[in-house]
Amino acid sequence: MPGDAGSIQYLLRAPFDRAVESVCKSLANRGLKVAGQLDISQHVERSLGIVLAPCKIIFVLPDPASSETASIHPWAAVFLPFHIVVSSEGDQTEILIQNRIHATPEAQGPGVAAPVSEMQGEIAKAIESIAMRPSLV
Asked: Could you point out which of 20, 28, 29, 63 has its C-alpha 20 to 30 Å from the C-alpha of 131?
């Protein structure tokens, strides 16, 4: 997935559980809400009996307490929640920001793209405060 135009890859030199905790804390510090987590590796092991390296998807929404939440157009719901995939990569943890939008504001209704793009930017800033892009490591 590192070459996927719909995702941004980061690496964090920390064990998996600490990395998940750091991601959630960093998102909260930027006014974002972790709506939930899906433990992919546990689900696959329980369903198929296949043991995988630890992997979770973190679902991110704007914090309802934020004054900017009211400005998000209902049509923007198709882009939410944002997905952050956190997976163990040996002695470090890989973080992927998924489902990034690239549409121009003209291609969408008024007030749809800008708030979602701003939220994407806040997610990227939150992750960049704790992890680095592999090309920069």
From this structure: 63
CB atoms within 10 A of CB 89: 14
- 2 three-state secondary structure: coil
Is 2's pLDDT higher than 50?
no
CA atoms within 13 A of residue 94's CA, in its CB half-sphere: 17
DSSP readout, 94-108? EEEE-------GGGS
Peptide bond into 81 cis (omega under 30): yes
Give 7's contacts (C-beta < 8 A, 6+ positions apart). Answer: 1, 85, 96, 97, 98, 99, 100
Give residue-wise pLDDT tens across range 53-112. 999 999 999 887 765 555 677 777 778 899 999 999 988 999 999 866 665 555 555 566
